[in-house]
Amino acid sequence: MRFDDNRGPGMPRYLTDDIELDGGVLPKDSITVSVVASANRDERMFPHPDHLDLTRTPNRHLDFGAGAHSCIGQTLARTELHVALDILLVRLPDLALAVPSSELARRAGVLTDTFEQVPVVW
């Protein structure tokens, strides 16, 4: 999720206090836009952020939010993903893309990105 997260417009946040950030201050009552895709590519948190490493630990991505803005469905989403991938990879161990990943055309959405097609072989 960290590697290929939503590149949407970001999440507006209303600041209830002054926030010190990188030597400056964001004033109380301001509205900021948090771009998760940018945070998930922060080299201070993710060495070699443009490299897909499925064993990366720790992997503190922000795709499910955090704190008061944490997704209440994240446990279910993670469980569904683990179960689906485990079954898929056991049943189709030779599953592979039929085209180079650079040829996959994206269908941009408001909240999520998808692909037009994902041709595979096994």
Structure at a glance:
The chain is of the alpha+beta class and 122 residues long. It has two helices and eight strands; from the N terminus they run ββββααββββ. It has helices at residues 36-39, 74-91, and strands spanning 11-14, 19-21, 24-26, 31-34, 96-97, 106-108, 113-115, 120-121.
Q: What letter string, H or E per element, gives the SSE order?
A: EEEEHHEEEE
Outline type:
elongated
Q: Radius of gyration over alpha carbons?
A: 18 Å
Low-confidence stretches: none
Kindly state the number of beta strands.
Answer: 8
* Category from helices, strands and their pairing: alpha+beta
The helix content, as a percent range, equals 10-25%
Main beta sheet: 2 strands, antiparallel
Q: Which whole number gives the mean pLDDT?
A: 86
Percent strand equals 15-25%
Distance between the termini: 24 Å
Strands ordered across the widest β-sheet = 1-4
Q: Count the helices. How many?
A: 2
- The assembly state of the depicted protein chains is single chain
Walk me through what this model shows.
The chain is an alpha+beta fold and 122 residues long. The radius of gyration is 18 Å and the shape is elongated. The protein has helices at 36-39, 74-91; strands at residues 11-14, 19-21, 24-26, 31-34, 96-97, 106-108, 113-115, 120-121. It is built from two helices and eight strands; from the N terminus they run ββββααββββ.
